[in-house]
Backbone:
């Protein structure tokens, strides 16, 4: 049975299915691709066919299989990026917001530009 003819493919949002794909996918699109691959793997697709269908290397799918086996779909979801901690406290951020709302002239600048 050819898994590509099952009609199970659901195209990802913002990704061109046929033809050229965008150079970079967003984090959300990559997560969606991993979750789509997980659904294909759970429905019995071979990892090689999943890699071809999702447009990834054949080495990526075994990593996803391992993550799926260790923690389920939760392990395939993207992790939040915390970023650098803020130098300003919550009260300082409120002060900045008030200054922006008040305008540049009230903040001792000569014009609103």
Residues:
């Amino acid at each position: 049975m050819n898994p590509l003819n099952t009609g199970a493919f659901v195209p990802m949002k913002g990704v061109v299915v046929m033809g050229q794909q965008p150079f970079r996918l967003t984090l959300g699109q990559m997560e969606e691709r991993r979750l789509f691959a997980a659904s294909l793997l759970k429905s019995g697709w071979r990892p090689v066919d999943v890699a071809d269908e999702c447009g990834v290397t054949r080495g990526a799918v075994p990593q996803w299989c391992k993550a799926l086996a260790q923690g389920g779909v939760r392990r395939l979801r993207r992790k939040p990026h915390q970023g650098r901690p803020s130098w300003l406290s919550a009260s300082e951020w409120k002060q900045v917001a008030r200054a922006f709302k008040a305008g540049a002239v009230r903040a001792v600048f000569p014009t609103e530009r």
Observations:
- The helical segments are 27-42, 47-54, 60-71, 90-102.
- The radius of gyration is 23 Å.
